[in-house]
Design a protein that fits this description.
The protein is an alpha/beta fold. It folds into two domains: about 270 residues, Aldehyde Dehydrogenase, Chain A, domain 1 (3-Layer(aba) Sandwich), CATH 3.40.605; about 180 residues, 3-Layer(aba) Sandwich (Aldehyde Dehydrogenase, Chain A, domain 2), CATH 3.40.309. The protein has 15 helices and 23 strands. It has a seven-stranded mixed beta sheet, sandwiched between helices. The chain has a six-stranded mixed beta sheet with strand order 10-9-8-11-12-22, with helices on both faces. It has a three-stranded mixed beta sheet with strand order 1-5-4, covered by helices on one side. It is globular, with a radius of gyration of 24 Å. The structure holds nicotinamide-adenine-dinucleotide. Nicotinamide-adenine-dinucleotide binds next to helix 8 and helix 9.
C-alpha cells in the first residue's frame, strides 16, 4: 500500500487531522494507496506559504525568464517520467493507458508552452488627452491561486491551471479530486525536483467539503480556478462572491454532435462514437446528444450500432481495450439511475442499456455503450449531464431546427458538426452557443486553443495565450511630466 503525503511550503506532510482516504483502482477494485484527508488548517498553511512565496519569497524577485526556466525543468522531468505518471493516473481513474500517455505528452508540452510565455507578458504605453501625463500599464500576478480539479484528467487539469498561473508570477495551491489525487502528488515530486522554490506550488488533498471549501473561503486566495460539476461550481461562485474573489469555472456539458444529410456518414459515425463512448463518456465534452438529419438517421444509426457493438471493454492498461470502467461508485450509480429515468420518460434503447458483464471486466463497474431513440430534447436524459456512455438520438428537419435544438439547453461547452458544406460549417460555428465547435472532428483538444464554456458550462477560458490573462491583473501607472504644482489643486486635472 502506497502512503502519500501532501506538499506544503516545500515539505511533505500528513494532514493536520492525521486521517487518510483510500485510493482504489477502478478496474481491479484494489485499494492501492492512501492520501491525506486534509483539513481547513492544512489549507491555511498552504495558502500562507503561497502568499509568502509570491510576495516576499524568491518567486517575487525572479525575472519572468527565470520563472520560465523552472517551468521548463518541470516539463523536462514530466517527459522523463511520462510512463510512470501515466500508469499512476490510470490506476487512480481507470482511463485508457493509451489515451493518458498521449495526454501526458501534451501536459509536458503545455509546461514548455507557458514557460515560453512567461517573459512575453507586456503592458502598454497609453496616449491620453492630458498634456502633462505619461501613462502605462503593467501586468501584475493576481495573487494566490487555488486550483480545484476533477478526477477524469487530474494531471491535465492541474497543468492547465498551474503552468499559466506560475508563468504569470502567482503561487498555487492545488486540490485534486479525492477520487484521484495520486498523479498530482507524483507530479509534485517533479516540481520539487525541478527546484521550484518552496511555497510556489503546494498540494493539499482531501474532501471538497473540508479542504476544498476552506480554500474557497480563504481571505488570502485571490483566484479560484475550478474544474468540476456545475452544482459545485455554482456553490463556489456564490462563496467567492462574498469576498469578490476572481473565479474561473470549467463545468459540465450536454454537448450536441450534429450530423447533416451532406456529411460523410462513416466519418460522422466514428466521430459520434468517439465523442460519447471514449473514456466511457466520462468527459466534460461528451457528445451526449446526437442531432441527426431525418433523411440520414436510419443509415447513421445502423453504422453507429455496428461500430459500437464491436467496442471492447476491459482492462484500461490492455492496448486492445477501447473502453474502461466507470471510475467511481457514485458515478456508476448515477449512470444507472439515468438509464431508468430515460426509460420512464419514454426513451427506447436500441443498444446496451445495462451494466456490462464478462470475463475481461475484472472487478470494474462497466456500463454497456448505450444508444437511446425516441428522445425529445426536453426530456431529462437530453437536458442533464450523465457523464457516462449514454447517447440520446434526436432528429431534425433543417439547419434552423438543428441550431434551435442544439441551443435549447442550459449548457454550452462544445458542439460537433459533420457536413461536407464548408459554408454551412461556418454558419453553424457562428450560431451555436458554445465555447468550442469541432467541424468534422471531435475531442480534438490542444493546450494552444482556448477552451471553456458558455451558459451553465462555465466562466473564463483555459489553454492558449489568453489563459495567462486569467492570472494577471492590469495596473495603470500615470506619471506627471509637469514640474510645477497644479493650477487649481481642487479641480481634477
Ligand atoms: P465535483 O464538482 O464533484 O468535484 C470537483 C472538485 O471540487 C474536486 O476536487 C472536489 O473535491 C471539489 N469540491 C467538491 N465540493 C467542493 C466544495 N464545496 N468546495 C470546494 N471544492 C469542492 O466534480 P467531479 O465529479 O470531480 O468531476 C466531474 C464533473 O467535472 C463533471 O460535471 C464534468 O463535466 C466536469 N468537468 C468539466 C471539465 C471542463 O473542462 N469543462 C473537464 C472535466 C470535468
Amino acid at each position: 500500500m502506497q502512503r502519500y503525503q501532501m506538499y506544503i511550503d516545500g515539505q511533505w506532510v500528513d494532514s493536520a487531522g492525521g486521517e487518510g482516504l483510500d485510493s482504489t483502482d477502478p478496474y481491479t477494485g484494489e485499494t492501492w494507496a492512501v492520501i491525506p484527508a486534509g483539513t481547513a488548517s492544512d489549507a491555511d498553511r498552504a495558502v500562507d506559504a503561497a502568499r509568502r512565496a509570491m510576495t516576499t519569497g524568491p518567486w517575487a524577485t525572479l525575472s519572468a525568464s527565470q520563472r520560465g526556466g523552472f517551468l521548463r525543468r518541470v516539463a523536462d522531468l514530466i517527459t522523463a517520467n511520462a510512463d510512470r505518471l501515466a500508469n499512476i493516473e490510470v490506476r487512480d481513474n481507470g482511463k485508457l493507458l493509451a489515451e493518458v500517455r498521449g495526454q501526458i505528452a501534451s501536459v509536458a508540452e503545455c509546461w514548455y508552452y507557458y514557460a515560453g510565455l512567461a517573459d512575453k507578458v507586456q503592458g502598454a504605453t497609453i496616449p491620453t488627452e492630458k498634456a502633462n501625463a505619461f501613462a502605462f500599464t503593467t501586468r501584475e500576478p493576481i495573487g494566490v491561486v487555488a486550483a480545484l480539479t476533477a478526477w477524469n484528467s487530474p494531471l491535465w487539469f492541474a497543468t492547465v491551471k498551474a503552468a499559466p498561473a506560475m508563468a504569470a508570477g502567482c503561487a498555487v495551491v492545488v486540490k485534486p479530486s479525492e477520487f484521484a489525487s495520486a498523479s498530482t502528488l507524483e507530479l509534485t515530486r517533479l516540481v520539487e525536483q525541478a527546484g521550484v522554490p518552496a511555497g510556489v506550488f503546494n498540494v493539499v488533498t482531501g474532501l471538497g467539503a473540508d479542504v476544498g471549501s476552506a480554500l474557497v473561503d480563504h481571505p488570502d486566495v485571490a483566484k479560484i480556478a475550478f474544474t468540476g460539476s456545475d452544482a459545485t461550481g455554482i456553490r463556489i461562485y456564490q462563496s467567492a462572491a462574498k469576498s469578490l474573489k476572481r473565479v474561473a469555472l470549467e463545468l459540465g456539458g450536454k454537448s450536441p454532435t450534429i450530423v447533416f444529410d451532406d456529411a460523410d456518414l462513416d466519418l460522422a459515425a466514428t466521430g459520434v462514437m468517439s465523442g460519447i463512448f471514449g473514456a466511457a463518456g466520462q468527459m466534460c465534452a461528451a457528445g451526449s446528444r446526437l442531432l441527426v438529419h431525418t433523411s440520414v438517421k436510419d443509415k447513421l444509426l445502423a453504422k453507429l450500432i455496428d461500430l459500437a457493438s464491436d467496442i471492447r471493454m476491459g482492462d484500461p492498461r490492455d492496448p486492445r481495450t477501447n473502453v474502461g470502467p466507470i471510475s467511481t461508485p457514485p458515478q456508476y450509480q448515477k449512470v444507472l439511475d439515468y438509464l431508468e429515468i430515460a426509460r420512464a420518460d419514454g426513451a427506447r434503447c436500441v443498444l446496451g442499456g445495462k451494466p456490462a458483464t464478462g470475463p475481461d471486466l475484472g472487478a470494474g463497474q462497466f456500463v454497456e455503450p448505450t444508444i437511446l431513440v425516441d428522445v425529445r430534447n426536453d426530456m431529462r436524459i437530453a437536458q442533464e449531464e450523465v457523464f457516462g456512455p449514454i447517447l440520446s438520438v434526436i432528429e431534425f428537419a433543417d439547419e434552423d431546427e438543428a441550431v434551435r435544438l442544439a441551443n435549447e439547453i442550459p449548457y454550452g461547452l462544445v458542439a460537433g458538426v459533420w457536413t461536407s458544406n464548408i459554408a454551412r460549417g461556418l454558419r453553424m460555428s457562428k450560431a451555436l452557443q458554445v465555447g468550442t465547435v469541432w467541424i468534422n472532428t471531435y475531442r480534438t483538444y490542444s493546450y494552444m486553443v482556448p477552451f471553456g464554456g458558455t451558459k451553465r458550462s462555465g466562466l473564463g477560458r483555459e489553454h492558449g495565450i489568453e489563459a495567462i490573462d486569467e492570472y494577471l491583473e492590469t495596473r495603470s501607472v500615470v506619471v506627471s511630466t509637469d514640474d510645477g504644482p497644479p493650477v487649481n489643486p481642487f479641480v481634477m486635472r
